[in-house]
Structures are given as C-alpha cells and as structure tokens.
Design a protein that fits this description.
- The chain is an alpha+beta fold and about 240 residues long.
- The chain folds into 2 domains: about 130 residues; about 100 residues, no CATH class.
- The strands form 3 sheets. A 4-stranded antiparallel β-sheet has the order 3-4-5-6. A two-stranded antiparallel sheet has the order 1-2. The chain has a two-stranded antiparallel ribbon with strand order 7-8.
- Helix 3 packs antiparallel against helix 4.
Length: about 240
C-alpha cells in the first residue's frame, strides 16, 4: 500500500497508518475517535485513506466493535461521489470477508443488530437500504405515486402501517392500509433481508420489511404500486 497517495479528510498521508498501528496494539477510545474523524466525514464523504484502511479494519473487526463499526461506516458511504471507485473495487476480497464476519455477528443477535444489519447491506452493495432502513418503530418513507405523481407518505411503525397524503395542518389524511408482501412473494434483496431477520428472530424487523416491500394504494388516484421500488427509484443518484 502506497500510503503517500492515501490522503485522509485533512489531506494528511501519514497519520492514519500510525493510528492503525496503535489500534492494533491497544483498544484506545481516543485512537478510534481520531480514526473515525479522519476516515469518514459525517458519513457523507470518504477518502482514499478510508479504503486503504479497510483491510486492517476488517482484520480487527472480529475482536473490536469499533473496528467493525468504522469499516461498516466506510462501506455505507461507498456509493457517494468520493472519486475512489477504483479503490473500492480493489477491496472486493476484503469486503467479501467482512460480509461473512457480519453475517456471523448477526447470528449472535447483538444488541446493535440493526446497525450491523445495515453494514451488511452496504457490504452487499445495497447502499440505498443501508442508508435509509430504520427499525420500524416510527418510520416514514416518501414515495411519488407512479401514476398521478402525488407525494405519498408511507408509515411503518407505531403510528400504523399505511399510505396517506401528508397535510401540514391535519397530519396524515386519507389513510389506506398497506398490503404487506408474503414471504413467498418476496424476491431479490427484499427476500434476503426478510429471511435474515426471521433467521435471527428479529420478527419486528421482518414484519417491517414485508410491509416495505409490499404494496400501497395511492390516496389520490387509488392506483396500487410497490413501495420499495418506488422509494429506491425516487432516491437513486443521477446517472
């Protein structure tokens, strides 16, 4: 690794490898705090040093929650306009190892299950869901109706599971119950997410995923559309 070309968010090229060497010797909070600050800028921007650090972070991840979390944060930013796509592609083997590690970690049903679940989505290249997936305790998703273009609010949480039109004064009006997908009707990433959550007995998460990948009725024109497809399309980065 030519660290002379791997600058961090401060433009420095020597500090990150020094910090990684310290992290390999001791699990010091101040070391991890500085590493996080240098490698991920508010989980929006990553840098060449971020991807250069991934192999060492993943090696530490089996015994360090901080290393696991920082590696996951770097990958969740992997779809951003960081100009490091070639470095990301060069990490394919390391990312594959990280996927296996995260899957084993999820099987242990950790307290921070959702965070690791989202990190695994990022490691699988599912950047959209890694960024927006919540725990379905109080989640709202905005989706444009593909037929009449009205903005529809999708609620999945303690307030209910419905589509509605959001009114500034009245709240969510003209609510229509969501139509969750059956486990057999799920496919692709929705099926993988649901099966993983069921496997690990995260049944609240699994139920939310079934609704997210189900169908909604537009309160304006009464057409029915897929929630997840609409949300992913509306929030896809421009080509």
């Amino acid at each position: 690794m030519n660290w002379a070309q791997m600058y961090d968010c401060h433009g420095d090229v020597g500090r990150v490898p020094e910090l990684l060497a310290r992290a390999e010797r001791e699990d010091a909070p101040e070391v991890w705090a500085e590493l996080g600050h240098r490698l991920v800028l508010e989980c929006d921007l990553v840098f060449p040093a971020s991807f250069a650090a991934l192999p060492r972070l993943v090696r530490l991840a089996s015994r360090s929650a901080r290393a696991r979390g920082l590696a996951g944060a770097i990958l969740r930013c992997g779809a951003g306009s960081h100009g490091c796509d070639d470095l990301l592609e060069g990490c394919a083997r390391v990312i594959a190892d990280f996927r296996e590690l995260l899957d084993r970690h999820l099987r242990s049903r950790p307290d921070n299950y959702l965070a690791s679940f989202r990190d695994l989505l990022a490691a699988e290249g599912e950047y959209h869901w890694a960024a927006v997936l919540g725990d379905f305790s109080d989640d709202f998703y905005e989706v444009g109706c593909p037929h009449c273009a009205v903005e529809v609010t999708i609620a999945i949480g303690g307030h209910g599971r419905y589509s509605a039109i959001r009114d500034w004064h009245l709240g969510d009006v003209d609510r229509r119950a969501l139509r969750p997908a059956s486990p057999e009707g799920l496919c692709g990433i929705g099926r993988r997410m649901h099966e993983r959550a069921v496997r690990d007995e995260e049944f609240g998460l699994a139920d939310g995923i079934a609704h997210l990948f189900g169908r909604a009725e537009c309160p304006r024109c009464a057409s029915v559309f897929g929630v997840a497809d609409g949300h992913a399309f509306a929030h896809s980065p421009p080509l």
